[in-house]
Amino acid sequence: MRPWLVLRKAELPFAEQLIPLDVPGFKDKLLALSEAGTVPVLQVGEQMIPDSLAISEWAALAVPNLWPKNSSDRTQAQVFCKRLQDEFGDLRAQAPMNLQRRTSSKMPKICLDDAQKLDDLWSGYLSAHAGPFLFGDWSIADAFSTPYATRFASYDLPRSPIADTYISEMMSDEDYLDWEADALIETWPGLSSFDNVNL
Ligand SMILES: N[C@@H](CCC(=O)N[C@@H](CS)C(=O)NCC(=O)O)C(=O)O
Q1: Ligand 1 pocket: which of 4, 31, 38 to mutate (most atoms within 8 A of CB)
Q2: What does the pLDDT look like over 71-130, one tens digit per residue?
């Protein structure tokens, strides 16, 4: 979702190839695309660019204004994106991304602690800028935040009013809504095992 949103905002045309994960033979398909054996991977001519942040950096070199203009904000945004990839493991593990899911089940404290930490970071950036996005205008940092926004919505995670407004902003973005529309009609093996899916 992250580099997909970035490429959409960059208005760079691209074609998608969807590779279902966790089905027999999926890893071989991924390893044929990158040494890491993960998606996403962007193919540009002969070049294969793995990793969401590397793809986003590639787009930012091709198109202006995907990072904040102010250099201090830009550095903060870049560091923040890396943290969003590397940290918040408990939130990601306990609240896996599933746009079809809506539940109010009690979540473990480790997950709520991560959610609170992210809320604090979002609130800090939002308070320091005029909004509506983390660094004022939309940037790659907002693309990297969007998957977390969906987790707050799916799992009804507690959040501050400022974070709630920001989550609504991300989830009403027209590019996000295109992605969501596809996700809502997607069928995956194992999806029915979620006992509290509420379409
Ligand atoms: N840091 C990488 C992480 C990529 C990643 O973990 N992708 C997951 C899907 S979201 C994947 O390919 N999982 C398959 C696997 O690990 O076998 C990025 O942001 O692109």
Answers
A1: 38
A2: 999 999 999 999 999 999 999 999 999 999 999 999 999 999 999 999 999 999 999 999
| CA torsion, ordered 101, 102, 103, 108, to nearest 10 deg | 60
Which of 2, 6, 39, 98 gets mutated to test ligand 1 (max ligand atoms within 8 A of its CB)? 39
Q: Is 39 in the pocket of ligand 1 (CB under 6 A)?
A: yes
Note whether 56 and 105 are same-domain residues: no
Summarised one tens digit per residue, pLDDT across range 19-51 is 999 899 999 999 999 999 999 999 999 999 999
Provide the CATH number for the domain around residue 107.
Answer: 1.20.1050.10
Can you give the residue range of the structural domain that contains 156? 71-183
- The pair of structure tokens assigned to 111 is 């997950």
* Predicted confidence (pLDDT) at residue 18 exceeds the cutoff of 60: yes
Counting the structural domains of the chain, the total is 2
Specify the 3-state DSSP secondary structure of 87.
coil
Please indicate, yes or no, whether residues 84 and 160 belong to a single structural domain of this protein: yes
pLDDT at 63 over 70: yes
Query: Are 47 and 120 members of one domain?
Result: no
Q: Give the C-alpha separation, 187 to 115, whole Å.
A: 28
- Tell how far the Cα of 84 is from the centroid of ligand 1, in angstroms: 13
